[in-house]
Design goal:
The complex is a heterodimer of chains A (252) and B (327). By secondary structure, chain A is mostly helical. Chain A contains 10 helices and no strands. Chain A has one domain: Ferritin, core subunit, four-helix bundle (Ferritin, Up-down Bundle), CATH 1.20.1260. By secondary structure, chain B is mostly helical. Classes of the chains: A mainly alpha (252), B mainly alpha (327).
Amino acid sequence: MTDAQHFAAVLRLGDDALVLGQRLSAWCGHGPILEEDIALSNIALDLIGQARNLFTLASKLENQGRDEDALAYFRSDLEFQNHLLVEQPNGHFGDTVVRQMFFSAFALDRYTFLARQTANADVAGIAAKAVKELHYHWEHAAQWVIRLGDGTPESHQKVQDSVDHLWAYTGELFMPDDVDTACAEAGLMPDLHELQGTWRDKVVACLERATLRVPEEGWSHRGGKQGVHSEHLSYMLAEMQVLPRTYPDATW
Amino acid sequence: MKIARMSPVEMNLEARFDAYVAEEKKIEPKDWMPDAYRKTLIRQISQHAHSEIVGMLPEGNWISRAPSLKRKAILLAKVQDEAGHGLYLYSAAETLGVTRDQMLQDLHAGKAKYSSIFNYPTLTWADMGAVGWLVDGAAIMNQVPLCKCSYGPYARAMVRVCKEESFHQRQGFQVMLNLAQGTPEQKAMAQDALNRWWWPSLMMFGPSDADSPHSAQSMKWNIKRFSNDELRQRFVDMTVPQAELLGLTLPDPDLKWNEARGHYDFGAINWDEFYNVIKGNGPCNKERLGARVKAYNDGAWVRDAANAYATKEATRQKNANASTHAA
């Protein structure tokens, strides 16, 4: 594992957290019930908090003077290395909770490994806090998928469509590239193939309880970790980064 | 003037109620209360709750564009607090026999009001500072006395609301301070936000006492403690030195210290603008209400699904219990 790979692995964790946190925060003020405005904002806050810790650590590893905000606001979409799943638009509430359920199931296992086994003590510290948060994120999202799937015929159809659509973005979570492989060998990050089985068991159990059909395995979209994103990310970053890029000399 | 007919029993109850309130005792949900007291509280608390959730929109407008991750987290937490305030207040109003759904229907139909200040746009990041500093500052001035309001559930909700609002106001001031001490562009942004938010903030205290329709009765019932003009004066007196500390200029050429009164004098408020914004002619009335209605309508299928699921689960539970007993 090179220093650059070590840095990239931590940065990727931060990118997933920031991009999903940014997406979820858009629900604040617009949720289907007030309790969900609060819950989704809470989850977004957890994710933004994780991103800040991870970027600060990445900054330390890189040692180039780029702080958390430089990493968040002064990288282009080509430099972001989040999974494609987390940048997918919020869509309707069903799309949001399915995206969250798929991702949280993965992130919970990933952070559980990191909290217990990673070779980097700083990563382990961040992961230990994140695991507690991810338990709640997973529960919250899975409960909603079950409610919507086993709710009304309309909600069942809507959330089935969400599952069918977003399924093709889950394969990327378990497709290792050079960074993943090197970091897994060095004991920094988990072996993605090992995470896939437990992810599938959890997700399938949730979908079955929700009376939803599990999509067949097929083509998976890929490229996020290498900086080749869907069309959505650039718009998201343009909005997110507008102020620091307009006033690069300012501090806020 | 219409006089409500009351039976001798009700007259006796009302006299006891008035005496109870006069002794600064708290009225609780199951206590007898005059209909007009109940209606006044439902109107005021629901309006307050609506203000919290509509108030999430102008600030929510900048969450996606907050200029640092720290500021993003603070702003998101703040707007989330407003949702929490909405929740306490809807719950407090529900103790008076109205449902949250009814209150929302009234908001969406334009029957219930919310604070008119939220019909102004948030145009730059500095508005996050100005809204926190001035709008939350004015709200606290109005709300602290409500912690001693005669209706127990409202008073208790307000204790928590005020603690959080006071934190919000300090963070708003901090945003302004950062801008005022920042680059020339940032300072100009701060001054522009102050120019736009100052007068609407003064209007938040409501019409002058002479033109305030509900004030006298609410004072008698210990729902309201100070007049609109008293609170407005207190706000001006508190804010002028803070603006000086920021090095920003309040947009009022008539503003000056009056030694004899021991207060700042300030210029005439444009009540024509105030009443127009209330009537629906503010810059964002349509957007704000439209956003609330859209969220409610878009969420209908989600709420229906949650209700349907809860019913199914209850039936499943009942059947499971029945078969356990049978076995």
